[in-house]
Design goal:
This protein is about 40% helix and about 25% strand. With about 280 residues, the chain is α+β, with helices and mostly antiparallel strands. Strand 2 and strand 3 form a beta hairpin.
């Protein structure tokens, strides 16, 4: 962090205006992350002894880790801007004066890498925790369970940012519960189609990778490049879903069957609209 902080004010008088105007795009909320770790998280960790109650420290600060979500949402924009000024003389001079082997973009990747490592740390602490202390082991397990959701949510949000063509209000759909690539088997069609599906609390959104996405996106890995682009295809309200269950012969928990209903105006009754299966692409 010190390298990042030092690199920016090194030559403020010579800093190009185009860089000054885009400091928020370049750095995002990295200062907030720095303050959280330096003034809150580290302080809480230093108050404990022998790694005891580390789990409590993580759990009590779980909301602050949302700072990483904000940072990662901005990271594609930062990468895109920095790629256009990678040969800027001012940045090159800063790198030489600080004897940095890595460029600014590489340092700004550190928070993204860090959020992926907390789970590994907690796994290690849990592995070597005293088996005769079930209370501490339980706290570490709770912390691990909660922290595992942080990078997953960050990843989900980044992929949702790549959805194009949806004109509704995303916020009204509720919490984003799941996003991934699925093979969709629609009743009446012989062949399945690949869809990127976003399952919210109140609706399901179907989309497909846009033509300009030359490479199939990895929906399980946090992307720091310009976010994947998905073209909106359809939305199904969960109020109209009559059945959402795992198939009986699915031992891998990767296939689901969904029946969607629509209300018939003449009878005011629900009738089957279409049925489709979802198979998670592994």
């Amino acid at each position: 962090s010190s390298g990042i902080n030092a690199e920016w004010p090194l030559r403020p008088g010579n800093c190009p205006e185009k860089i000054k105007r885009h400091t928020t795009v370049i750095f995002g909320n990295i200062e907030d992350i720095y303050n959280f770790h330096g003034k809150i998280f580290l302080f809480d960790l230093e108050k404990i002894e022998d790694n005891y109650n580390v789990g409590d420290v993580f759990c009590s600060n779980i909301a602050n880790f949302d700072l990483y979500t904000t940072y990662c949402k901005n990271k594609p924009h930062s990468e895109n801007f920095l790629s256009g000024i990678c040969n800027d003389a001012f940045l090159k001079q800063c790198q030489r004066d600080l004897n940095h082997v890595l460029d600014l973009s590489s340092y700004l990747l550190k928070p993204v890498q860090r959020i992926m490592k907390y789970n590994l740390i907690l796994e290690k602490l849990l592995k070597y925790a005293n088996p005769r202390d079930p209370e501490n082991r339980e706290k570490l397990q709770i912390a691990l369970n909660r922290m595992e959701g942080v990078p997953r949510y960050v990843n989900d949000v980044i992929h949702l940012m790549g959805l194009e063509g949806y004109t509704g209000n995303i916020e009204s759909l509720g919490e984003l519960l799941l996003q991934d690539n699925f093979m969709v088997y629609i009743s009446g069609q012989r062949r399945p189609t690949t869809r990127q599906i976003f399952i919210f609390k109140h609706a399901i959104i179907f989309s497909k990778p846009a033509a300009k996405s030359a490479q199939k996106p990895n929906s399980r890995k946090i992307s720091v490049a310009p976010q994947p682009v998905y073209q909106f295809k359809n939305e199904v309200s969960l109020e109209n879903v009559g059945l959402f269950r795992k198939l009986a012969d699915d031992t891998a928990n990767t296939r689901f069957k969904i029946e969607v209903f629509k209300k018939e105006k003449s009878t005011d009754c629900d009738s089957a609209y279409f049925t489709f299966e979802l198979a998670l692409e592994l």
